[in-house]
Amino acid sequence: MLSIVPIVGMGGVGKTALAQRVYNDAKVNGCFEKRAWVCVSDVFNVLDITKTTLRSITGLSNEGEDLNELQVKLKDSLSGKKFLVVLDDIWNEKYEKWTALLKPFEAGAKGSKIIITTRNLHVASITRASPYPLRELSFDDCVSLLAFHALGATNFESHPAFKIIGKKIAKRCKGLPLAAKMVGGVLRTKSNPDEWEDTLKNKIWDIPMVENDEVLPVLKLSYVHLPSYLKRCFAYCAVFPKDYEIERDELVHLWIAGGFLDGQKANENILKLGRKHFDELVSRSFLQQSSIDASKFSMHDLLNDLAKSILGGTCFSSGGSQVASNEHDVSSLEKTRYASFIPSWYVTSKCLKPYQGMKALRSLILVRDGTSVGSFSISNKVLHDLLTNLKYLRVFSLCRCQIIEVPNCVGDLKHLRYLNFSYTNIERLPESIDTLCKLQALILRGCQMLSQLPQCITKLVSLQFLDIRDTWSLKEIPLGIGNLKNLIILSKFVVGLEKGSQLKELKNLPHLEGELFISELQKVEKVIDAVDANLLRKLGLTNLSLHWGEHLGDLHNHEREA
Fold first, then answer.
1. What are 232-253's pLDDT values in tens digits?
2. Cα 503 vs. chain centroid, distance in angstroms?
3. Residue 324 pLDDT > 50, yes or no?
4. Interatomic CA distance for residues 348 and 364, integer angstroms
5. At 157, is the secondary structure helix, strand, or coil?
6. What percentage of the chain exceeds 70 in pLDDT?
7. This prediction's pTM
8. Is the pLDDT of residue 522 over 90?
9. pLDDT tens digits, residue range 326-353?
10. Which CA distances in Å does 152 have to 156, 158, 168, 170, 450?
11. What is the average per-residue pLDDT within 124-144?
């Protein structure tokens, strides 16, 4: 019989944090042959959960297979092996769905464990396992946690001026770790007891608590005390579904495109400014590092709820089946500025119909949620019909989609500042993109079929970020790339011959930073070209990779290589 451990407690009490500590503990890891972590949240989809678990176990996406095929593969992968699986944030109370999910896990070896986290005791009861109730912190522990985040100390003994008021504030946190962390982040910027007193007396503490959102008043207090420049950046995160994980620079690029970093000091690097904002939100616990992938970050579910309450009707997020089955108020859709869509395996025009009515939409992101893996499909016609109705888009992201062609109408999006086709099957970009004079970020990472960039890309003088990492079919860079003098990120440069880019073009890109991969160096004709590239003066570059082709042929020249 399967061993299941349900961790039950209210929102913000630390269920996920406890599960993460167990999941990432070195001694625990040594006890299991296979491990998987799945963020479940509101929608308990047996197919998606099975698919995500299988991908964690095998590393394969198995896209397009039905539930039976996936469960057979998962059963084979777990057969006779001791495993640990965490199912985080479950709301499902339907016993038949639960038993359907568990079928492959029964093949595991004795000692295998499934940990679930939930706010609902009824959810735990369907597992027939004894729940582990996670209680609030003791008062002393809550005081200690508050002091740590506010003052960097484990108590107030070395800060006697804050001791009395600190304990009063800790009492308001009602033993919830998330509340203590958030309030501690607020107090860290306040240097005298009077400011702490003002925080304690804030009326937000007295807002009636909502069921399942017990910590929301505390979070509102933390939001109120955010600097204005951080409020906009945090609120934008409402566009993402719960449990969505994002890399720092990816989010910063979206902030830049949305105009949330305007007003920076003269000559200040806007990417560095955005990273400062990001790091500050992390330090205040508004964003948290993923325990699975250290390069990614996410928001606590309650903070996601808070961000959505702030944006209200200007933010819209939905999935394929949900959109198709519900009617939407046309007038409210017209107010939407930020939207995301969580695609199922195939995106139809019916799924996207509400989005076509968002005439003033500024940001549209098609994302895979926390339980979805692999890619999805959308026809060129459906994509064309969608984009022709959204004339004011600043941000459009279509990642991990099986499209092979970008519709020409993308060139009609005159306000576009951010365009992302990462991990798609596109082979080229249309020449019509030369009209996107405001485009700042073009993200083509992982486009394995992309063989060339259009020559007209050299006209996009506002371009700051050109991410072409992992584009192995890309064999040349358009001549004149040096015209893009505002480039901050150019992840890859392919040296060409007569019709291709020469290394010396890098001379005209003084702001380059981060990673730069230079390939086909055997094609450099003159040593002076390498000198002219002036790479030593580009102090922002943190990782420079140089690559010579394997088959040098007549281009082999020891003098130039030296």
1. 999 999 999 888 899 999 999 9
2. 34
3. no
4. 16
5. coil
6. 89
7. 0.82
8. no
9. 445 556 788 899 999 888 778 888 888 8
10. 10, 11, 18, 15, 49
11. 93
- What one-character DSSP code corresponds to residue 491? -
Task: Look at residue 212 and tell me whether its pLDDT is greater than 50.
Answer: no
Domain assignments of the chain as residue spans, ordered by start: 3-133, 139-224, 228-238+249-301
Q: How many whole angstroms separate alpha carbon 480 and alpha carbon 190? A: 51
Please check the confidence at residue 101 and state whether its pLDDT lies above 50: yes
434 dihedral zone (left: phi>0; alpha: psi -120 to 50; beta):
alpha
List pLDDT tens digits, range 185-206: 989 888 889 999 998 888 777 7
Beta bridge partners of 181: none
More confident residue, 550 or 67: 67
**Residue 95 is which amino acid?**
Y
Closest CA to 148 of 180, 190, 191, 196: 180
Asked whether the beta carbons of 110 and 78 are under 8 A apart, the reply is no
CA distance readout (Å), 1 to 78, 95, 113: 15, 17, 10
State which CATH number among 1.20.120, 1.10.8, 3.40.50, 1.10.760 fits the domain covering 139-224. Answer: 1.10.8
Q: What secondary structure, in 3-state letters, does 64-128 show?
A: CCCHHHHHHHHHHHHCCCCEEEEEEEECCCCHHHHHHHHHHHHHCCCCCEEEEEECCHHHHHCCC
The CATH number of 3-133, from 3.60.20.10, 3.40.50.300, 3.40.50.720, 3.40.50.2300, is 3.40.50.300
Quick check: 285 and 234 in contact, CB under 8 A? no
Handedness of CA 365, 401, 408, 493 (dihedral sign): positive
Phi and psi (nearest 5°) for 133?
-75, 125
d(CA 428, CA 430): 7
